[in-house]
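1st attempt posting a full record on here, be nice pls
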Amino acid sequence: MTDVAKAKNAESTEGEQTRRSSHCYPSRLLGRRKVYVASSWRNIAQPGVVAAIRKMGHEVYDFRNPAEGDNGFHWSEIDGGWQQWDADRYVNALDHPIAEAGFKSDFDAMQWADTFVLVQPCGRSAHLEMGWAVGAGKATIMLLGPDIEPELMVKMCDHICVGLGSVLELFEMLDG
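the predicted structure (as tokens):
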């Protein structure tokens, strides 16, 4: 590699590190934000992330409690044996009124939000939500979980954070 190519490569690498750690879109990120937290029902850290961001004064959509008295969508509301479904039963269940209402609640919140925080570990739905947010031009923050499996395409996210403290510091920095 030539010295010029090495320099360009170093600048590119430094630029990518800066983009992930401090790049933001001020017109979209200053002040109080509307935050969509994408994660898994099995992720025990998700409620703490929601609470911490709310404590900072931001509005947060919580898929576990999307509205007062509503504890979110559960496949078990459609069929208690949902974990034994085959592909045909799953596809048919997507049209069930309960599934339609759950999807509408989450997708309306996705459209409402200006900032997305993906809390790992999580599953396919949360990653689909984050991918949609990237494509929609929303501000995106990925909070890595304790056990990571490296994935290249996370580079699409505006910020990649290690630990909730880093996410909260990022919110403070972007507010300033």
